[in-house]
Design a protein that fits this description.
Radius of gyration: 24 Å
Strand order of the largest sheet: 19-20-18-17-21-22-23
Strand content: 15-25%
Structural class: alpha/beta
Number of helices: 16
Number of domains: 3
Distance between the termini: 63 Å
């Protein structure tokens, strides 16, 4: 094969290119007519033409920042000479909507899933122990840890017992946005199809009362959904004993579940990226976006989230909104975040992270443009609040923070039954009860962290594979993992501590 070029040009209008490897001073860039003036690390940007102070810096054919000083051709472009200020963006709601090329139903892909009584389809078969409040978190953890192994060994069709615990549930208002968000999240997990049975445990005196949750969402206790409080049961030891007994009674029912072939339209995919680098938006994220497009064409659902990390790229999503209501709801979420961050003494531009910057990302606009690529190219069919049930098919957006565990928590509560997570720096992530596959953006990190990475998209940057070819590999892997193949994080046992509900409002 011919040698891969030294740099990557993403759009003819760009005034920067991305280094494929470390560029040393004096290196000539073929096709650009530019010699490198200073050392430019791999994944970072180098200017290909003069950029005057205040002039836009363009990557992906979009503005990612403005020159804070004159930039000469061949110069490293990064935080020392690229800044950011507000500028107008044309939302053009619905201007790029196009028909979706759906695969005929008879030809659609399928996987082996667990069909529940309510018609929802799970990709795993767990029993869950959920805490309503931090005060019952230790009990829930101990129930999962002490559940007799020999009982589980009798039922190999059951994936295990998972404790879902968190740090809130009290010291908060019993109404309003924060309380509603926590209740939606817990309800989403209590009804998640990856659980064959659920036990909800509270302390008894917390703000987040079990009765409030049951009433708000019409939950009814039954043999596969039970509740108890430590104060009524008699304390820690008695609650653990009683809880283990309740789960043991659920085991035979859970074991009756069998995987059966179902259409790929029953997959709801959570799209995530973390520990991003300069290659994330070039290879892995567009490849995941292509996989999301394939899933949508097969009738499934893909959820993009992390609102602070699409900030500055939201106009690319509103243009794909199927109607004005959907587009305006996304803009409303952006405005909410601007107010929310300002009220807390922050700003939306407080990003990327130090690791992102070390990997070559300079501004939130650059990061957002790369992150939004996970959403593929199909129409935006819905915009949802955090943990709000997804009730439409296709490509949708769910509002969430950019913090990965918190964002995935909301996506799973909304109905995601599989997670795809791209990473350039090497995020180690799992999320029980939902399988998570990790996708490397560059080959060196993939090789270094092979025990954690499920798939390498560094092949795109290496010139060995197209975005479409890598996207098809991702889609095929999603089907296999949804059918029971264990992801790397599952093999390592990662995923017991990533449940992080979004805590909005005052802690009192």
């Amino acid at each position: 094969m011919p040698a891969a070029p030294l740099t990557i040009r993403l759009d003819p209008s760009d005034n920067v290119v991305v280094a494929r490897l470390d560029l040393l001073p004096g290196t000539e860039l073929p096709g650009e007519g530019v010699g490198v003036q200073v050392h430019v690390p791999a994944g970072h940007k180098v200017a290909t033409r003069p950029i005057a102070e205040g002039e836009p810096i363009r990557k992906y054919g979009q503005i990612i920042g403005f020159a804070s000083a004159p930039i000469a051709p061949g110069t490293h472009v990064h935080v020392h000479n690229c800044g950011l200020h507000d500028f107008a963006r044309d939302y053009a709601i619905g201007s790029e909507v196009k028909p979706t090329a759906y695969v005929p139903e008879a030809e659609r892909a399928s996987f082996l899933g667990f069909v529940r009584e309510n018609g929802k389809v799970g990709t795993r078969n767990y029993l869950g122990v959920l805490s309503t409040v931090n005060c019952s978190a230790t009990v829930c953890k101990l129930v999962a840890e002490r559940f007799p192994r020999h009982l589980l060994e009798r039922y190999p069709n059951v994936d295990g017992v998972v404790a879902i615990t968190h740090a809130t549930g009290c010291g908060m208002a019993d109404r309003g946005e924060g309380f509603a968000t926590l209740q939606r999240t817990l309800w989403g997990f209590a009804r998640h199809p990856n659980f064959a049975g659920v036990l909800l445990i509270g302390l008894g005196c917390e703000v987040n009362q079990i009765d409030f949750l049951m009433e708000a969402y019409g939950l009814k206790p039954g043999p596969w959904f039970r509740t108890m409080t430590m104060q009524e049961t008699g304390g820690t030891a008695k609650t653990i004993e009683r809880a283990i007994g309740a789960l043991a009674e659920m085991l035979p029912h859970a074991a009756e579940a069998r995987r059966q072939r179902v259409a790929a339209s029953e997959l709801t995919l959570a799209l995530q990226c973390g520990g991003s680098d300069g290659y994330s938006g070039i290879g892995a994220n567009p490849a995941l976006g292509h996989a999301a497009d394939i899933l949508v064409r097969h009738g499934g659902t893909a959820i993009l989230s992390e609102t602070p990390e699409i900030y500055g790229a939201e106009h690319l999503l509103t243009r794909r909104a199927v109607d004005r209501k959907v587009g305006e709801r996304l803009i409303e979420r952006i405005r909410w975040w601007e107010h929310y961050t300002a009220a807390n003494g922050g700003e939306m531009n407080n990003n990327p992270s130090p690791g992102n910057k070390a990997g070559g990302l300079t501004t939130i606009l650059e990061k957002s443009l790369g992150a939004a690529a996970k959403g593929g190219t199909t129409n935006l069919t819905g915009v949802y609040l955090y943990a709000e049930p997804i009730d439409t098919k296709g490509f949708v957006f769910m509002d969430s923070p950019g913090y990965d565990p918190c964002s995935v928590t909301g996506q799973v509560a909304s109905g995601a039954n599989i997670v795809a997570f791209t990473t350039g720096r090497g995020s180690c992530f799992g999320f029980k009860p939902v399988p998570s596959i990790k996708i490397a953006t560059n080959t060196p990190m993939y090789r270094r962290m092979i025990d954690d990475m499920d798939l390498n998209c560094g092949t795109i940057v290496d010139g060995e594979e197209t975005i479409e070819e890598a996207g098809r590999r991702i889609f095929d892997l999603l089907l296999r993992v949804a059918s029971g193949e264990r992801s790397k994080s599952e093999q390592l046992g990662v995923g017991d501590h990533e449940f992080v509900p979004w805590q909005i409002g005052a802690v009192m």
